[in-house]
Amino acid sequence: MLEPGIKQIEGLTGLPVIGVVPYTCMNVPSEDSVSIKDKLKNNHAVRIAVVRFSHISNFTDFEPLEHEADVRYVEPGDELGEPDAIILPGTKNTIDDLKELKSMGMDRAILDAAQKGTPVIGICGGYQMLGTAITDSGIEGTGGAVSVSGLGLLDVSTVFGKYEKETKQVEKTVTADNGLLGSIKGEKVKGYEIHMGKTTSSNYVFGDDGCVSMDGLVFGTYLHGLFDNENVRRSFLGYLYKRRGITYNHKKRDDGDGIDELAMFIETHVNMELIHNILEGQ
User: Fold this and answer.
1) Can 44 be counted among the known catalytic residues?
2) Of the residues 124, 211, 269, 276, which is catalytic?
3) Predicted confidence band of residue 258 (pLDDT cuts 50, 70, 90)
4) Tens digit of pLDDT for each residue in 261-274?
5) Does the active-site annotation cover 25?
6) What residues have CB less than 8 Å from 68, skipping those under 6 apart?
7) Which is the catalytic residue, given 44, 67, 224, 276?
8) Most buried residue among 45, 124, 140, 275 by CB atoms closer than 10 A?
């Protein structure tokens, strides 16, 4: 149906049309944090509050949880409510977001919830905030060299000594004994790291990564993509459902992010040979 229009465009421009990609519905990660406002509430019994930092990053870490939990993004100045778990996500500016968290009183709300037994998880920058202190030599925040006390929920400390970013894919072994991940101790998890700063820890949660509290209800890690692991979702959500006295009917899902499916879809509808020739200067 579009062929006459395609030929006309090629005739008018003198350029080839490489293809027409039709509209489709596909499960792929959201694009950056602008998609947070598009999130819809659901009626899952378990409620998870993700703190929406001003410099939030990698928020798609938590999209796999949305199929079995009510994931809500909470601004530092909003009411935390009474969630079944709290997650501090990654951030592009740990120091400034931690200061904002404190200025808005969200730190106190998180600590009060943790004291009542609410599980708390920190990913990347959120993990750094859960420690006792973060020391910045002037490369991470906007206020120059500074040392800021963390939430103190984990016995770790972080130093931003130089502008050096860790970027790598990893596979780790679950070493937590109890709590949120106790049911999968010894199993493998995969993820990726992209962070600055060095964190000193002892009671690791995944092999030589992160830290976990003695009761297993608070842990932090540098692993992004953690909840893409089916075993992590099963253990974490299973624990939360059990605490609510609700039967958890876990549905195993494809751990893929839909990118391969998207690539195949594009290849089906565009002239890849022409694209390769253009790239090679032919």
Assistant:
1) no
2) 124
3) confident
4) 888 889 999 999 99
5) no
6) 44, 46, 233, 237, 250, 251
7) 224
8) 124
